[in-house]
Design goal:
Elements: E1 30-31, H1 43-53, H2 65-75, E2 82-85, H3 87-99, E3 105-109, H4 116-122, E4 126-130, H5 139-144, E5 150-156, H6 168-177, E6 183-187, H7 201-206, E7 210-215, E8 228-231, H8 234-243, H9 251-262, H10 264-287, E9 299-303, H11 307-319, E10 322-323, E11 325-327, E12 332-339, H12 343-359
Parallel strand pairs: 1-10, 3-4, 3-5, 5-6, 6-7
Antiparallel strand pairs: 2-8, 7-8, 9-12, 11-12
Helix pairs in contact: 1-9, 2-9, 3-4, 3-8, 10-12, 11-12
Length: 360
Amino acid sequence: MTQMTPQPGIMDIELYVGGKSAIAGRADVLKLSSNENPLGPVPAAVEAAAAAAVEMHRYPSTDHAGLRAAIGEIWGLDPARVICGAGSDEVLQFVTQAYAGQGDEIIHTAHGFSLYPVLIRAASATPVCVPEAERRVDVDAILGAVTARTKMVLLTNPGNPTGTRLPDADLARLVEGLPERIILVIDAAYAEYTDGYDGGASYAAKRPNVLMTRTFSKIYGLGGLRIGWGYGPQAMIDVMNRLRQPFNLSTVQLAAAEVAVRDTDWVARCQALNADQRARLMGALGQLGIACDPSETNFVLARFADEAEASSAEAAFVADGILIRRVTGYGFPEGLRITVGDVDQTGRVIDVLNRWRAAA
């Protein structure tokens, strides 16, 4: 029997493994493994989705005009330069497939989004992973990795699972230091949790080679609907739209996202809760002698003395019905990534850590 041969790079892809969502024998599981909003989805978006569901027999719009207009209104962007996808993952797929192929290189950092190598190999390009410095993106390492074959840089900012953000001056240095032939993608999924940061929108608005991606999965609480968007130069957006399936977002997705992005009061409430409980959790980790960099996201990366200690702490969480995320695959065998919850959830996490430390 003839065996079909896939495109180069595809068989090198390792399947993505998401955060766990269940513990055998427990019905009261607290899931803090996937950086989800503890307050749930935007309430008005739930209502909009339910109302739109009665029209699910109708095909959705192909141009996403209503959602793009809402994004432009709230963020002060040109709607014509917005592209929408099934999560920001799909937008990242558009840009890698459109601008890279066999023989090309795409740079990403050691602790960037784990999907990057998958997208790069799916485009038959070569991933070039550069180290970070003390869990922070190293601009010099990125610029030093540029070759004649480099087509793109994928940058997670703020980072996941580190929670750290590249300082504005360093981001400017990266933008200025890359040749215009190289696309810089600023993946800003957690930008709403950071004060004074536009996610790279100002660069995407002015530079011919910068694309910003955003998501509705985090602060808007719509991860289950899979909605994301990107913003960049008109020429780049026009190219990416040629790859986008005409009906890639459903009527329900579009209705929920359009309402969600306009609910700025809800976003402000989520931002305030996250900032307060994030500081509380980081403070508790510090008091227990557990290392943790200042986070600018909705999670913290707790770094234990070694892998064995991290495993012991994880076991204590599971015994209490709490799911957190091991990040060994991201290069932190000693690390546990913990989503910032609400007041009660954060208190429960701290209680587990206190008991664990006392028993150690």
